[in-house]
Amino acid sequence: MPHDQDIEGDTAGISSEYECLQCGKLIRAETHPGDCPDCDGEFQNRAKSLE
């Protein structure tokens, strides 16, 4: 992210997109959603690199 677009202060209310690593289900949430309700797989924030 460019430096002039850094987020400062309270980030409450900013949602992220999470993807289930097992079945691929996508959801938007403000905090980590836990396990996938469809397959019990683990969610990963899509903004985070898988490397």
What is the radius of gyration computed over CA atoms, rounded to a whole number of angstroms? Answer: 13 Å
Extract low-pLDDT stretches.
none
Name the structural class: mainly beta
Through-space gap between termini: 18 Å
Overall strand count? 3
Strand order of the largest sheet: 2-1-3
Shape: globular
Indicate the percent of residues in helices: under 10%
Strand content: 15-25%
Q: Main sheet?
A: 3 strands, antiparallel
- Helix/strand order, N-terminal first: EEE
Oligomer: single chain
Question: Averaged pLDDT, please?
Answer: 80
Count of separate DSSP helical elements? 0
Protein name: Rubrerythrin-like domain-containing protein
Domain DUF7129: 16-47
Please outline what is shown here.
The protein is an all-beta fold and about 50 residues long. About 0% of the residues lie in helices and about 25% in strands.
Describe the structure.
There is one protein chain. The chain is mainly β and 51 residues long. The mean pLDDT is 80. It has strands spanning 16-20, 26-29, 43-45. Helices cover 0% and strands 24% of the residues. Pfam families: DUF7129. Residues 16-47 form the DUF7129 domain.
What order do the helices and strands come in, and which of them pair?
Blueprint: E1 16-20, E2 26-29, E3 43-45
Antiparallel strand pairs: 1-2, 1-3
Pfam families: DUF7129
Protein name: Rubrerythrin-like domain-containing protein
Organism: Natronoglomus mannanivorans
Features:
51 residues, mainly beta, three-stranded antiparallel sheet, globular, DUF7129, Rubrerythrin-like domain-containing protein
